[in-house]
Design a protein that fits this description.
Layout (H helix, E strand, L loop, with lengths): L9 H30 L8 H11 L5 E2 L2 E2 H17 L10 H37 L4 H19 L6 H22 L6 E3 L2 E3 L21 H12 L3 E4 L4 H10 L1 H4 L4 E3 L9 H7 L6 E4 L2 E4 L4 H8 L9 E2 L5
Parallel strand pairs: 4-9, 5-6
Antiparallel strand pairs: 1-2, 3-4, 5-7, 7-8
Helix pairs in contact: 1-3, 1-5, 3-4, 4-5, 4-6, 7-11
Family: Belongs to the VKOR family.
Subcellular location: Membrane
Protein name: Putative membrane protein
């Protein structure tokens, strides 16, 4: 008498397609965030409060790794998970059973490692959101939910023969990810590079309505450039919660920035002028208006000097992280 083939649970039948679908959604999300980060555009959120939280988080120092948007690495991770989960399904089980089985076995281990790493990393970012940035970011929370969902599907999506291997792999990958994450995000002090100082990026939440305090001191070049920009009618548009706007202020220093024609665009900022920002067509922060042209994104003193025709002292004191 022939034995009936064992019926697999539905989750084991559909686990790979589900993981692949989640990974594709994650890839779309992180691709959007990457394009926004590289173009300097603000991301879209469903509410103004959420929007400031999104942009606050996504423009903070935690949103960049080795000078590149963190979302770019997330995009690569999601694409890898999609490949590992859906790739073996492209091999015909009946005609190439041996190859299909080998691919499934290897990719299950890769899926386990990838999902574990993404979950641990997302957990660290959730901790940062709650304790340091103290704000909500729907994109970050959504990505964390994707990572946890994929890990659950990996664990339940097949009948693991060696549970010890699963536990060991999870512990090793989790520890490596955590140590690497802490190393990448270890606080870097202000350092000198040649005769210039590299400014630090804000990691604490901004003071509501005011932002962060400017703690750099202006030199003669910064003051001269600020006076020149004001003389030619240049305007800087920004938002109090925007870390890159604060970095722009730090590049000038406290004394020089007081001479800049600064327009606050975000409620409830101090002396907010939202209509002026809308009239100018400002879509991202910071933005500069020079000679009737709008220049989105953070500008170095050298770039502002070139855009405005400045020919004064050029011994600027400060540099952005990752710039030489």
């Amino acid at each position: 008498m022939s034995r009936r083939r064992k019926q697999l649970p539905w989750i084991q039948i559909w686990s790979r397609p589900l993981i692949g679908a989640i990974a594709i959604l994650g890839a779309i999300l992180t691709a959007y965030l990457t394009v926004s980060a590289l173009s300097g555009a603000s991301v879209a959120c469903t509410a103004e409060a959420a929007g400031s939280g999104c942009n606050n988080v996504l423009s903070s120092s935690y949103a960049k790794v080795f000078g590149l948007p963190l979302s770019l690495f997330g995009l690569l991770a999601y694409l890898s998970m999609a490949t590992f989960s859906l790739g073996p399904l492209a091999v015909d089980r009946e005609q190439q059973r041996s190859l299909r089985n080998k691919l499934e076995n290897w990719t299950w281990l890769l899926l386990l490692a990838g999902a574990t790493s993404m979950t641990v990393f997302s957990g660290y970012l959730m901790y940062v959101l709650a304790t340091e940035l103290q704000t909500a970011c729907p994109y970050c929370i959504g990505s964390a939910a994707f990572a946890v969902s994929m890990l659950i599907l990996v664990l339940l999506g097949r009948e693991w023969e060696d549970s010890g291997q699963v536990i060991f792999t999870g512990i090793v990958v989790g520890l490596v990810t955590l140590v690497g994450t802490l190393g990448v995000y270890s606080e870097k002090p202000v350092v000198a590079q040649g005769d210039r100082i590299v400014i630090t990026q804000p990691t604490s939440p901004p003071t509501p309505g005011k932002g962060w305090q400017i703690d750099t001191q202006s030199g003669e070049a910064e003051i001269a450039l600020a006076e020149h920009l004001t003389a030619v009618g240049a305007k800087k548009y920004g938002a109090f919660w925007c870390p890159h706007c604060h970095e722009q202020k730090q590049l000038f220093g406290k004394e020089a920035f007081q001479k800049i024609d600064y327009i606050e665009c975000a409620d409830p900022g101090t002396n907010v002028q939202s209509p002026a920002c809308k009239t100018a067509g400002v879509r991202s922060y910071p933005s500069w208006e020079i000679d009737g042209e709008l220049y989105p994104g953070l500008q170095t003193p050298e770039e502002l000097a070139a855009l405005s025709g400045y020919e004064g002292p050029s011994n600027f004191k400060y540099l952005l992280p990752g710039r030489s």
